[in-house]
Amino acid sequence: MDMRTRIAAGLKDAMKNKEADRLSTLRLINAAIKDMDIARRAEDGDTAVTDDDVLQILGRMVKQRKESARAYDEGGRIDLAERERAEIEVIEEFLPKQLNDAEVAKAIDTAIAQAGASSIRDMGKVMAALKAKYTGQMDFGSVGPMVKDRLG
How many whole angstroms separate alpha carbon 72 and alpha carbon 80? Predict the structure, then answer.
């Protein structure tokens, strides 16, 4: 089942079960996907949004909400921070399982070996290989420095 179908099914279930918070989050996801659809149509004519694109959208949405929750916590707005975290939980249902630290380290080592990377100049190749294989499964913001340390 592709990502759009899973999200649409989740949306229908949330409507049937009258889960307002879940429904609003799923509608936000749908809107983000449709925005990308429209942008793609304007650029390329008729290039459909793929599951990888949806995973990138979801990853970006989680990252935004984590940053917002952190800002709300710092500002003493615990209620808003909790709402952001609830949205994160809904979004993460559609993301693949996140890799743990050991799995991330192994994936980095494998990508370095496959790319034949030997210096920091090869970091782009390694990151591209990781993004191609592990989109939605790791936080590339924290992976970048790890790759840099291994190559540097």
Answer: 6
State how far the alpha carbon of 33 is from the alpha carbons of 30, 59, 60, 86, in Å: 5, 12, 12, 20
Structural domain ending residue among the three candidates 69, 92, 115: 92
Determine the Cα angle at 133 with ends 97 and 142, to 5°: 70
Confidence of residue 1 (pLDDT cuts 50, 70, 90): low
Residues 84/65, Cβ–Cβ less than 8 Å: yes
Count of domains observed in the chain: 2
CA distance 7 to 26: 7
Range of the domain at 55: 3-92
* Alpha-carbon gap, residue 36 to 62, rounded angstroms: 17
118 φ/ψ angles, rounded to the nearest 5 degrees: -130, -15
Instruction: Give pTM, 2 decimals.
Output: 0.73
